[in-house]
Amino acid sequence: MNRVLKAGLSAIGLAIFVSAISVTIASAQGSLTDVLRRMDANNKALQSLTADIMMLKFNSQLNIPDPTYSGTVSYLPKGKSHGAYIRIDWNKPVEEKVSVMGDKYELWRVRLNQVVSGNVDKASKGASAGNVMSFFSMSRDQMRANYDVIYIGDETLSSGTPTFHIQMTPKAKVSYKMADLWVDQNGMPQQAKILESNNDTTTVQLTNIKKNVTIKASIFKLDPPKNVSRIRN
Fold first, then answer.
1. CATH number for the domain whose boundaries are 29-232
2. Which pTM was predicted?
3. Among candidates 195, 217, 171, which has minimal Cα distance to 74?
């Protein structure tokens, strides 16, 4: 095969390769646009939510997972006069109750008769799901403004739910490196995973989701006994 023919075939091969890459990138961009559109529609229609919740934290230094937390969650999105309201009732591995109102949280450790409170971004272990929950109600504009977002692919969760997997890298310096979201066909995030600055991870998954049910605002105020010990985080 002469040199000219080899060069011509190489050029054709390169053109095909570049074309295939371009199609893949365009397809991924199209998929991301579609996922964000679905999420935005879900976010605008969502007035309330209840679900079962699971949280798994992985300790990168020890290379072992912490005990898996499981319980129930109630959620009211951010309104004109208040931030998002979240109530989580953990029943395993210990009984704990968490209330998040805007950027503040309270964690009632029932067995210890203790309430820990502080800012969500500094939440202790049982309350840290409240921080991750903020990703479940983020608008398309908030994502575009604060993150570089890429489409990873279609994935099925352990619950059997088909999802779109997207990954978000913060544009500004925050307390974590990266966040992943798994979004169902209706645009509802089903799972979120945070890669923290020390390489620990926190994964939160929702199942048995019920949207737009009646939730009384009063449930977001914890009611521990008067003799409870209070700690400011």
1. 2.50.20.10
2. 0.80
3. 217
